[in-house]
Amino acid sequence: MENKPLLEVKNAGIQFGGLKAVSNLNLVLNKGELVGLIGPNGAGKTTSFNLLTGVYVPTEGDILFNGERINGLQPFKVTRKGISRTFQNIRLFNELSVLDNVKVAYHSLAKHSIMSSVLRLPSHFKGEQEMEQKSIEFLKIFKLDIYKDELAKNLPYGQQRRLEIARALAAGPKLLLLDEPAAGMNPQETKDLMDLIAFIRNKFDLTILLIEHDMNLVMGVCERIYVLDHGQLLAEGSPEEIRNHPKVIEAYLGEEVHDVNA
Amino acid sequence: MEWIQQLINGISLGSIYALIALGYTMVYGIIKLINFAHGDVFMVGSFIGFYSITVFGLGFFPALIISMTACALFGVIIERIAYKRLRNATRIAALITAIGVSLLIEYGVIYIRGAQPEAYPDVFSNRSFEIFGAQISSQSILILSVSIVLMILLQFIVHKTKTGKAMRAVSHDTEAAKLMGINVDNTISATFAIGSALAGAAGVIFGVYYTKIDPLMGVIPGVKAFVAAVLGGIGIIPGAMVGGLVLGVVETIVSALGFSLWRDAAAFIILILILIFRPSGIFGKNTREKV
Amino acid sequence: MKKSKQFWPFMIAAVVVYAVVQLLISNGMMNQFYSNTLIFIAINIILAVSLHLVIGITGQFSIGHAGFLAVGAYISAILTMKLHLPFIVAILVGGIVAALAGLIVGIPSLRLKGDYLAIATLGFAEIIRIVFLNIDAVGGAAGMQVSHLTTWTYAFVCLVITLIVIVNFTNSRHGIASISVRENEIAADAMGINTTYYKVIAFAIGSFFAGVAGALYSHNFYIIQPSQFGFLKSFDILIFVVLGGLGSLSGAVLSAILLTVVSTYLQGYPETRMIIYSLVLILVMLYRPKGLMGTMEITDYFKLWRTPKGGGQHGK
To answer: How close C296 gets to chain A, by Cα (Å)?
Structure first.
């Protein structure tokens, strides 16, 4: 049982009109791994995430999660199966409080019906109280509880990223997809983020797939790395192997050399 | 042979829709705004034509040109006063403002001159020709030829002139156009001017053809023209022309089949079917939100 | 909890308002003009609050609310006038049929966004109007005679129920889910929210109460005609919601009260009324695009508690 991969992507791909955005994508993620997905701009990284989370339906291939086919499921169903994500451009619920942002993630775990809420039946109060307590506990883990009544849009940038990760985890995923979590961060914030990733990985028994441009971060935390270019897998291996892979160097040459050296 | 006649009627109606739809589609293409007030510019154009003919005793063509010029100016004023500030506002705020402008024009006109309708004067001796056994009025021919000339003129402006090129550039990518030294504000104003001039022309033609005009006459043709624009693919100029003609013909057929009270519903049913099954319209390309 | 803390003051205030007005009416101290205005205010608040759920909370830009008002008005009138059923049954059935109409309209069109959704709902409302125009049994364009059955009691009870249902819905996990759809549909989806479900539910609840308002509306006149339910009526309701502040329940309530009073006084000058309406609409959008109150509630100003969810308003 243990050796069955958590996520298996088999020859998945998607076409927009005549354009093949991603093709022949093959990924295997085992339980507990922290894997990076890198590639030059426009290589199809975010598109791959969108395939995994149901935002796009693959036009070819299969995506298996826990051995179950999930391609074609709507995003909210994929989330309920245990895959949640953050976004490249932060997508918080700006006009909701920090607490309510996390509550949204707990939504599908609560069971009280619309009728019970409208009539204010005991199940409503019980359910709401549970959601509230769990959400506050959760914010405490991320040291965000001091902001709990603040509107999400008023948080500083770094804290917004943190809240987005917290919210994704509140949905109770087995697999977490992080889309450029360090984008726009200074070195100190990036370092905090690396600590945070290490922390949540232990705390929540997670498998993580990470898109990142910051090579320091990728090489520093990932155990295995997939490299995408022009919608195709270019290479796969340990950080050391990737660093010295001729094709990878070629794909990045002239584009992000400074990142590799950094 | 009655069918040919109905078809001609449909095309005449459709070309009026098409002229109005062009303004909708050009404005939407360039600033992504459903300019609800566009139907009212059409109404104002119709009244300007009416007063030019009755009060100043002008002929059809001078009245047409005066109406087009005045409407062009009116369109630019609306854009400068109401819409310019909304460039970075939410789509909802922009749409509500447009609804507000529309109501303001309608009831402003009613306030100034009252709600009573006017009968458009006969500017042409209405002769009929017989083609394939169908009675074709000279007015139908007039409408068609004026519409066709205006549409050809528009194609020329959009594709051959500097303003037209700037319009296409701004609608494609406003920021990039700005960086290339295009005066975006003036280009948007030019778009409103051209679109409104076409609506003004449609207003005069409508008056001559249907003879009755009133301050709320722009509401239904305005919405129908929007349907035509969506049908053809909003933002696409040939789409608006084809959409207008298709809609005009469909409505005429629905009326001819004896369902004249359902005629207005037909347009909305087409709208909803298009929105649900092919929101990008006949000529549009599908776009999706970037995640 | 905070929700129940607000509930009893609200109920007490509601009972007091009701009793005072009812007393004034039955004593003959309030003439028909004023009592009628109060009934109108109640109906308009129901309309405003029901559309607030769709636009303000769930963020679905529907501008065809008059269509559901028409369904409620006509269905209830058929029930009382043709089938001689009690008014209370007519109100309920009017609401239910309007909710069904809401489902029929909402399920296909709520896949659309922004402008497109707005136009589709406008189109649907117009189709509903044209359908009634073409049914001879309800009098076509000439209209249908309806008995005057709406009283202050009916209007007020319906108003209180509407407020309770919508406030309770909003202040629950379902309300937060609906707001998350408004705030960022893609993120809501990614957080496990069935966005389609909440859009359709909000639309159906909104349509239900528009139908209830329709029943009160038609039985407050002696005749109903399809022309009463055109674009302009939809825009009237939209103005309540937009002016008050998209997302603010108390804003919608306040602007419904204010605008009903204004238009009652301008009844003799319909053009002036429309010019004022449209100028207000344009100026608010240009200078305060989030509406007069934004997403704030009146309670926020009193610092009772700070999250943007209202509940302390009543229909006076």
So the answer is: 10
Q: Residue C69, SS3?
A: helix
Tokens of B80: 């400068």
Q: Does residue B289 belong to any structural domain of this protein?
A: no
Interface contact B272-C123, CB threshold 8 A: yes
Q: What integer pLDDT is reported at residue A179 of this predicted model?
A: 94
Q: What is the pLDDT of residues B217-273, one digit of tens each?
A: 999 899 899 999 999 988 888 899 999 999 999 999 999 888 888 888 888 898 888
Cα Rg of chain C, angstroms: 19
Asked if residue B252 is part of any domain, the answer here is: yes
What is the DSSP code string of B235-264?
A: T-HHHHHHHHHHHHHHHHHHHHTT-GGGHH
Picking from A154, A109, A159, A167, the residue whose alpha carbon sits closest to that of residue C180 is: A167
In CATH, the number for domain A1-82+173-262 is: 3.40.50.300
- Check residue C157 and give its pLDDT: 96
| Strand, coil or helix: A104 | helix
Q: Is residue B153 part of a domain?
A: yes
Quote the crossing angle between the two packed helices C231-244 and C114-133, to the nearest 10°. 140
Average pLDDT estimate for B83-89: 87
The DSSP annotation for chain B comes to -HHHHHHHHHHHHHHHHHHHHHHHHHHHHHH----TTHHHHHHHHHHHHHHHHHTS---HHHHHHHHHHHHHHHHHHHIIIIIGGGTTS-HHHHHHHHHHHHHHHHHHHHHHH-S--EEPP--S---EEEETTEEEEHHHHHHHHHHHHHHHHHHHHHHHSHHHHHHHHHHH-HHHHHHTT--HHHHHHHHHHHHHHHHHHHHHHHHHHH-EE-TTTTHHHHHHHHHHHHHH-TT-HHHHHHHHHHHHHHHHHHHHTT-GGGHHHHHHHHHHHHHHH-TTTTTPPP-----
Query: Which of C164, C192, C247 is facing A107, going by the closest CB pair?
Result: C192
Question: B243 contacts in C (CB within 8 Å)?
Answer: none
User: Residue C54 gets which letter from DSSP?
Assistant: I
The position carrying tokens 């320091």 is: A216
Judging contacts by C-beta atoms under 8 Å, the chain A residues touching residue C300 are none
Average pLDDT over residues B180-197: 94
The contacts of residue B209 (CB under 8 Å, 6+ apart) are B12, B16, B139, B140, B143
- Cβ(C160)–Cβ(C232) under 8 Å? no
A32: which DSSP letter?
A: T
Cβ contacts (< 8 Å) between B291 and chain A: which residues?
A: 46, 50, 55, 87
Residue with more model confidence, C50 or B58: C50
- Give C114's pLDDT tier (boundaries 50, 70, 90): confident
Q: Does residue B291 lie in a domain region?
A: no
User: Is the minimum CB–CB distance between A133 and chain C shorter than 8 Å?
Assistant: no
Residues B45/B67, Cβ–Cβ less than 8 Å: yes
State the Cα–Cα distance between residues C104 and C106, nearest whole angstrom.
6
* Alpha-carbon gap, residue A250 to A254, rounded angstroms: 9
CA–CA separation, C173 vs C181, rounded Å?
Answer: 12
- Cα–Cα distance for residue pair B65/B148, rounded to 1 Å: 16
Check if A55 contacts B (Cβ < 8 Å): yes
Q: How far apart are CA C142 and CA C155, in angstroms?
A: 27
Q: Are the beta carbons of C191 and A105 separated by less than 8 Å?
A: yes
CATH number of the domain residue B172 falls in: 1.10.3470
Which chain B residues are Cβ-neighbours of A46 within 8 angstroms?
A: 291
Helix (H, G, I), strand (E, B) or coil at A224: strand
Residue B171: give the domain boundaries.
2-115+130-277
Distance CA C146, CA C215 (A): 10
Domain count, chain B: 1
Closest CA–CA distance from residue A246 to any residue of chain B (Å):
32
Report the pLDDT averaged over residues C72-76.
Answer: 97
Q: For residue B211, what are its two tokens?
A: 């003879």
